[in-house]
Amino acid sequence: MAKESGRRWSPAAGAATATSPEASRGDRRGQAYGQPFGATERKDAWWLVPLAQATGLTLLGIYATWSALQGDHYEFGNYLSPFYSPLFKPSWWPLSPALLILAFPGGFRATCYYYRKAYYRAFFADPTACAVGEPWKGYRGEKSFPFILQNLHRYFLYAALVFLVFLWWDVIKAFTFDGRFGIGGGSLAILFNTSLLSLYTFSCHSLRHLIGGNVDCFSCAVAGGPRRQGWLGVSWLNEHHMAWAWWSLFAVCFADFYVRMCSMGIFHDPRFL
Question: What is the pTM of this model?
Answer without folding.
Answer: 0.83
